Amino acid sequence: xxxxxxxxxxLQSPTASIAVQSQGPTxxxxxxxxxxxxxxxxxxxxxxxxxxNCRGSWLIRGDVLIGVNLSRAQILDKDDEARRARVRxxxxxxxxxxxxxxxxxxxxxxxxxxxxxxxx
Length: 120
Known about the structure:
single chain, mainly beta, two-stranded antiparallel ribbon, 2 helices, 14% helix
């Protein structure tokens, strides 16, 4: 306890100063991040196709990654003292789309003519 009493005034002395330099956000640092993924979203859609005398419909399931391209970000203003920056991001876009083949289902496939052949 006595050792802390001697050390405490030295730690809190006004003559000791610590210099901190902030690098701050730069366009180059944002561009190195490349893409910012904001969400993964499940999607489902009905695909209807027709050709060679047959028609079919399928329930397609999958997911998409939606993100922001940081190479197009703009730093509008920067406050070094408050350590804040205002950044304008481009609108989100689909980065990757995947089809889940195990959850995709054939709804209906039928022939449009009365010929006796298989329309696989």
